Structures are given as C-alpha cells and as structure tokens.
C-alpha cells in the first residue's frame, strides 16, 4: 500500500489477511454470509445497552419482514426522533446482528427510536425486493408514530454501503405514496452508481478490503439484467432531479472503491441546493464503521451524523410537488 491509512484500519486489513479464506466471489452466497458473520463478530464495536429492544414483524408486499426496534437511553416516550437504519452487505450479506452496534450507537446518541429491517437478500430475492422491503419498513415507521411515540417531523433514514444505496433511494421517494417526509438522510460510504466505472475502482480495487471483483459479484447477484444498473433506483446518481431530497449527511472513506461515486453524489446534491454536511475521512477504508473494536472513528462518525441530523431538523424544506 502506498496511501496513508489509519492504524486501526491497517490492523483490520491485517486481521483479514491472517484469517485467510476465500474471497466472497469464489464461493456461494451462503458461504459468504457465514464468512461475514465470523468476521463481524470479531470487528464490531461495543454493544452499548439501550433502554429497550423489541422484535417486530412488518407487513411487506412480498411477505412479512422481521425487524428490530431500539429505543435509546434518554429517548422521550412521546415525540421522539426516529431513524430507519438499513444495513450494508452488498445486498447479499448482512442481517439484524451485523450492524447491531451501529444501531445501538444511533439510538443512544440520538436519544431516538431506531428501526432496522431484515430485508430480503439477493440472489434469492433480487432487485427490487430489498427496496420494496425497506419502503414498507419506512411506511410502517411513518404510520406507527402514535404507537411508538415518534414525532412524525423528526424521522430520518440512514445506511452504509448497499444500505446507504437503499437509504438514498428511500430519501428520493420521501413524502410520496404513504411515506413520511424525512428530516434527514445519513449516508455512510453509499453505493450510488452500479455501473462501477469510477476511477476509485482503479485506485482502490485491490488491497483495501472491499475489492472491485467482490463489488461486481454483489451487483451481479442483486440485478437480474445488466440494464438495471441504469435504473435510478439502483444507481441514484442517475436520478433526474435531487432538488426535493431531504438534507444529507454523507461520509466518504478516502481509501474506498466507492469514494468517487459518493463524492459525485455529494456534488449533485450540492448543485441541487440540498442542505449538506460531508465527512471526509481520507485515511479510512470501506466498512470502517463496522470495525469499532479497532477503529475509534466508527463511533465518532455516528456522533457526527447525529449532530448533522439535529442541525437539519431546523431546516424548512420546500414542498414536494
């Protein structure tokens, strides 16, 4: 490696190399899920206690969707902020436990309610199933404000990587078709362009954790045809109009194959006049927020995201046409 790298991130990469094993794309999705579970149990940050955790099942257009509901310490019983958190994992791996630490951090730091849906994964359930499940989860959150003690004006979405992709697309749907108006979107190294042609795929395609080959494997499991990569619901960078998107916090890892497409999305939001906060972490790798045991910046990033969310709540958004 020639680029500067955070010592904790370097340690995470070293642990991955020492563990050996085959790359995700060299095996089956089930093998990738087992390998990912073994890795995240080693890397996760502290599982902070929260005020309450509850299992939920949400009705979705393709069947029931398991979900986990967190109420953070200090969250009010009435008019609490609420967050839909969409986990990453390339639309193929990840579950309710893989991002449990991040959901707990958000719940406590935001003194809020967090809902994390266990959306269906590809290739068994290709696009747009994951999106449909997440839309159903957001619709549930907006409809359950009385039951859950949520302030309907203080709902946000968040996600990382492929979860950031889904959260970005949810944000472009907000305020329509029974979905709540969102106060913020909190995007952590989001995937915004499934065409995978950005220069960061060349700069960081090997040696920094997530490789270009693995990312292509994820995408090809998610999509049923190559043409779907040009659908804005897969590649939100290609959406016609971002002007009605909610205020955005975007975190970009400098040593990440997804860096340039995330940066391009930031510039499109800026050009559209969307209120924006950008966290640039030049020495970090993709997935660092899920490695809190070794990378203190993981939890610090959530502190920053919540602070941006609070600032955005004071912004009066234009009407959605």
Automatic annotation (TrEMBL):
<dbReference type="InterPro" id="IPR033140">
    <property type="entry name" value="Lipase_GDXG_put_SER_AS"/>
</dbReference>
<dbReference type="Pfam" id="PF07859">
    <property type="entry name" value="Abhydrolase_3"/>
</dbReference>
<dbReference type="InterPro" id="IPR029058">
    <property type="entry name" value="AB_hydrolase_fold"/>
</dbReference>
<dbReference type="InterPro" id="IPR002168">
    <property type="entry name" value="Lipase_GDXG_HIS_AS"/>
</dbReference>
<protein>
    <submittedName>
        <fullName>Lipase</fullName>
    </submittedName>
</protein>
<keyword id="KW-0378">Hydrolase</keyword>
<comment type="similarity">
    <text>Belongs to the 'GDXG' lipolytic enzyme family.</text>
</comment>
<feature type="active site">
    <location>
        <position position="161"/>
    </location>
</feature>
<dbReference type="InterPro" id="IPR013094">
    <property type="entry name" value="AB_hydrolase_3"/>
</dbReference>
<dbReference type="InterPro" id="IPR050300">
    <property type="entry name" value="GDXG_lipolytic_enzyme"/>
</dbReference>
<feature type="domain" description="Alpha/beta hydrolase fold-3">
    <location>
        <begin position="83"/>
        <end position="289"/>
    </location>
</feature>
<dbReference type="GO" id="GO:0016787">
    <property type="term" value="F:hydrolase activity"/>
</dbReference>
């Amino acid at each position: 490696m020639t680029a500067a790298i955070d010592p904790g991130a370097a340690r995470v990469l070293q642990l991955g190399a020492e563990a050996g094993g085959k790359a995700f794309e060299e095996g089956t999705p089930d093998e990738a899920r087992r390998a990912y579970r073994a890795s995240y149990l080693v890397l996760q940050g502290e599982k902070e206690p929260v005020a309450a955790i509850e299992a939920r099942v949400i009705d979705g257009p393709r069947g029931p969707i398991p979900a986990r509901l967190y109420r953070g310490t200090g969250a009010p019983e009435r008019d609490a902020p609420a967050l839909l958190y969409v986990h990453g994992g390339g639309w193929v791996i990840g579950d309710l436990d893989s991002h449990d630490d991040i959901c707990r951090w958000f719940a406590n730091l935001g003194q809020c309610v967090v809902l994390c849906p266990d959306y269906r994964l590809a290739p068994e359930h290709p696009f747009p199933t994951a999106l449909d499940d997440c839309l159903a989860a957001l619709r549930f959150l907006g409809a359950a404000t009385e039951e859950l003690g949520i302030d309907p004006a203080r709902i946000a979405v968040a996600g990382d990587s492929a979860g950031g992709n889904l959260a970005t697309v949810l944000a472009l749907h907000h305020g329509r078709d029974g979905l709540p108006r969102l106060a913020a979107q909190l995007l952590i190294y989001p995937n915004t362009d499934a065409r995978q042609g950005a220069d960061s795929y060349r700069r960081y395609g090997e040696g920094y954790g997530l490789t270009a080959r693995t990312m292509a494997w994820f995408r090809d499991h998610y999509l049923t045809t190559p043409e779907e990569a040009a659908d804005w619901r897969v590649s939100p960078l290609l959406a016609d109009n971002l002007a009605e998107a909610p205020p955005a916090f975007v975190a970009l890892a400098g040593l990440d194959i997804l860096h340039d497409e995330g940066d391009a999305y930031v510039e499109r939001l800026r050009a559209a006049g969307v209120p924006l906060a950008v966290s640039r972490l030049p020495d970090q790798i993709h997935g660092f927020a899920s490695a809190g045991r070794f990378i203190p910046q993981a939890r610090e990033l959530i502190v920053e995201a919540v602070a941006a969310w609070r600032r955005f709540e004071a912004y009066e958004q234009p009407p959605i046409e």
